[in-house]
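User: Quick sanity check before I run a bigger batch. Here is a single chain. Can you write out its predicted 3D structure?
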Amino acid sequence: MIEIDVIKILEFYDEEVPSSLHHATAINAVAGEDMGAGLILHYLTQKNVSAEILPEKCSQRKKKGVRLDRWILATKNGKKVYYQTEIKNWSAHAIGGKILKVNATPNEISEYKIERWNHFWDGETLRAPQARKVLTPMKPIENNSKVEPLICFWDSMHPSGKNEPFFSVPIKDENFSRLLVFSMSAHLRNVLSSGKKKIILKMSETESRIEWLKTMFRVK
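Assistant: Done. Predicted structure follows.
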């Protein structure tokens, strides 16, 4: 388990503070996907949903084909849903990124969410192929199970600017009737507004990477 500083994370990804320049790609490589998955679990747990990151590869199980970042199993009232999940840490550092201050007003945040949603959504589907691949059916872990596509973005976003980090939009697709969307920034801002400045996330891969770094490098 890893403790994260909510304000520092938001400043790094949303404000693009000068000291963070040139570090986003490297930090994302170490912790980006793991943090996204950990935040999804944190959100679902708050909503009384039992959730876990599965060790199985989220793929089509072909020599060539699409592969996504995680399988996340959510269970509530005995009903299971497998989320085939793609995580994108595109933030203020990215090309086309946009800064959102940690202390932005509710109106500024709402307007930002609408703009960011329209930036990623063309009215029918996700604009970027790197994100749209989440709609490619993966090979189910369990036969006859319920599978839904979940795209996890860093940016705060919502079609109407609402304060909802986790939402769905209907899609016209032969395999899925809706797309689930989770915003890391929006969830962390809600955590901060609740008075919490630090939270603990399940980030096992990041733990291992940090331990490796400690064995090889030491700041003097």
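The helical segments are 6-15, 24-46, 106-120, 129-132, 184-193, 204-216.

User: Great, the batch can go ahead then.
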